[in-house]
Amino acid sequence: MKKIITITSFIILAATIPGCKKKLFDYRNKYLGEYQITYHYNYREMGGITRDTAITYNGKVNYGGKEEIKMDWYDGSEYTFTLSKKGALSKCSNFIGTMDKKRFELTFTDDVCGTGPMGANYTVTLSGVKD
Fold this sequence. Notes:
This protein is 11% helix and 50% strand. The protein has one domain. By secondary structure, it is mainly beta.
């Protein structure tokens, strides 16, 4: 009887695991979910043109590749960031912000992954609060 209960428990567990959205024992699990996100974009050109945009939207944080997460962007696309076990966010090996179970904040400039556009600079700040 004990053997039947053990086998039945194993079958039930095995059947439910593929249906889970979160991966077992993955440190990123606590960061995934729905967020209210504020996107702030500041753009400046040498010729005096500036743009300052702020947009608030609902988005998700999902798994990316190994040690990565994907965040929904205001335009429907996704951006990928590296996330350490302690919640440090980075892009192109540069530290850009932090994340905990309830919120995140990151800021990067046009030169985070190399030289930015000649004569122009931009800064993106993204902050989110988990729903």
